[in-house]
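Hi all, posting the design record for the shared folder.

TITLE: backbone redesign
STEP: 1 of 1
STRUCTURE INPUT:
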């Protein structure tokens, strides 16, 4: 069986959360599928790489941010027209450095998320995240 669209691509996704609950979203740069859509930062997990190590590598490459600690939060599979992905979400409240736009992407700290359009796989997570962030 070939690994075309059948087996999902593992993707590490980081939710950087400030003490006030704000989270960082980035905008996909031109030239990528869904360019202009907003998402949490992250990227593909390489062969023989742990999800957490992939996340640390991606956030250094994309934002110049060093993750000190992150907890697994949830996993979501989503089939896009261009790819079948398995997203592994981690929440980090502990990192070093201020995010920088190393790939020319826009990014924004969001309390209640009001950037559009959001990547389809991200939309349900925002509601779950709000429950987590604003739990009584």
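Okay, here is what came back for every position:
SEQUENCE:
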């Amino acid at each position: 069986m070939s690994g075309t669209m059948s087996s999902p691509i593992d993707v590490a996704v980081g939710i950087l959360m400030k003490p006030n609950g704000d989270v960082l979203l980035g905008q996909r740069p031109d030239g990528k599928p869904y360019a202009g859509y907003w998402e949490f930062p992250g990227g593909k997990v390489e062969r023989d790489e742990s999800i957490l190590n992939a996340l640390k590598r991606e956030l250094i490459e994309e934002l110049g941010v060093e993750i000190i600690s992150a907890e697994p939060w949830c996993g979501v599979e989503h089939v896009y027209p261009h790819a079948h992905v398995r997203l592994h979400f981690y929440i980090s409240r502990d990192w070093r450095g201020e995010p920088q736009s190393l790939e020319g992407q826009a990014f924004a700290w969001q309390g209640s998320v009001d950037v559009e359009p959001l990547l389809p796989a991200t939309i349900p997570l925002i509601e779950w995240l709000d429950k987590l962030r604003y739990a009584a």
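COMMENT: The chain has one domain: 9-133.
Let me know if anyone wants the other runs.
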